[in-house]
Sequence to fold (266 residues):
Amino acid sequence: MAKLTLKPNIEHEIKKGMAWSVHAFTTSGIVLGFLALVSVLKNDAVAAFMWLGLALFVDGVDGTLARRARVKEYTPNFDGGSLDLVIDFFTYVAVPALMVYWFNMVPAPWFFAGQTWSLICAALIMAVSCYTFANVGMKSFDYYFVGFPAIWNVVVLYFYLFNTGWLINLVTIVFLSVLTFIPVKFVHPLRVAHWRNITIPMTVLWAAMTLGLTISSRNPDYNDWVYKLELALFTLSSLYFAWISLWRTFVLGDKGDEEGDDTSAA
Fold:
């Protein structure tokens, strides 16, 4: 009988341990981000994107795990939301900003030479993203991001995969920086209920094609028709995310802001 009373709340302790394990899983994102940083310093862009991709996966699923593990209930003195923001700023903003500078993605030929414009753009990315992460209205009631959500890791990925020139990169960085302060809606691919049956498969497709294209960028002998197929599917999925974001902003608009929240189970 004595042994039975040693842990009268064993179920609570197990669930508390599960909650802490979710926090540990979230924390792995900062390690992955650091490995991406090391890869950048080694001039290995492909490896950096691989590590950032893994960090993106962790960030994509840890919220669902946290809700199911009821971390707020079982670890009330630990703020998983703050932990997530710290890691996200590092992996979504700091490392990609370094990539813009380190790989000189904005080598503008006028005024300042060398990597000066890349440095300016990197600093701009860091600065405007502070507003995003401090904005209490970062998400709408239906889980769309309000304003550009500082997904600079994805932006830099597009620069790399499409091998865009300095002018496109410069205009894109400035444009998205401005969108940070404008209430344009950007879809959260896992939490938004609208068109979820399409969005989730599109998210999986986008991730798979991103992996394939990133690997192919390192292999000059990669099958040409496979590359073209992956590029087409990657572009299709990207256009879908752009479409649903524009639909929520300009078609649903204020009507969507007035509707009840149907995503409580997300």
User: Anything to note?
Assistant: The longest strand covers residues 145-146.
